[in-house]
Every structure is written in structure tokens, then in C-alpha cells.
Amino acid sequence: MRVIAGKFKGRRLKTVKGAEVRPTADRVKESLFRIFGAGVVDADFLDLCAGTGSIGLEALSQGAKSTTFVDSNYHAIRIIESNLEICGFNRGHPQVRLIRLDVRRALARLGKRKAKFDLIYFDPPYASKIYEPCLKLIVETNLLSPAGAIVVEHRKDKGSNWTESLILDELVLSRQERYGDTMLSFYGWHG
Questions:
Q1: Can you tell me whether residue 177 is helix, strand or coil?
Q2: What is the model's pTM?
């Protein structure tokens, strides 16, 4: 796993041993940031269920103003810290924030602090049941900036597609991209 572009291009990142964390494939990451384009420059980025932190680090590498990494796993947070050091950051750097909490508690806390993010990347374990509750919480806490985007990484199921049945009057599914069994669903504010 590596940083694919920007000022940290080519740096090799560490991964969490075992099956606890499923890193986003480089080709998915490359496509994601091609879609973001210049929109990542000067963006406040939120990496939810950050795992190794590779998505948030890619955002910083490609010009994001800041990245907030959220993960409940102690080992994942330690790997994110190591990967930040590989890219010249430390935990106290003003562009970086690490939060070790359950994603719902972290969203509630960020909402209380009136945080705003231009880009939110949400990549929970594929089998989890937290997709819809977390998207609703992002809306309720008003974490997404007016022109912002939420990208959800999930498994492409041949049966029911939860993204089509998701009822969020405030958010609109604007785009989907498929990479094998992986899907990226892009949401923005309605209207």
C-alpha cells in the first residue's frame, strides 16, 4: 500500500496485521482522487473508519487543508500514527486530528463542536449495520459543508442495494462507481 500522488507520492504505508482492517485498494483510491480532482485542494477531510489512514493521508498528499481520522481500533490508530510519521506529520500537527472512538460517538462529538467537512470518506466493515445510522447522524449534526460530498465505500451486493433503499431526504445519491466487488457511492446535499 502506498501514497499514489502528490507531495508524498510513492511512500510505502504500514498496514494492520490480521483481518481487522481491510485497506482500500490502490486502484480504488486512485480513481477516487481522480474523481475528486482539484476539489481535494484546501478541503477539510474526514476519514471515518480510517483503518490505516491511507485515504486521509492521500487527501493530505494531494493538498487537503486538514484531515480528521476516526477509528475505534487501538491498533489502527497506532498504524495511522506511524503512517503520519512516514509522511512527516506527528499527532499534534495542526493539519491532523486523530479520534479513537466508535464512529457514531465521534460524529456526535464533532457535531457538538460544530465541525464542518468538505469531503467525508466512510469505509466501515462491509458487513456492519452502521451505514444508514451514520449517514443520518452526519445529516443531523450538519457536518457536511454546503457544497461537500460524502463517499461511502461498500460491497456491491447482487441482491438488494442498500443505497437505492436509503431514505435521506437531505442527501442525494449523485454517482456510483464499481471496482470488482467494491462500490463507491457519492452523496451530496439535495438541491
A1: strand
A2: 0.92
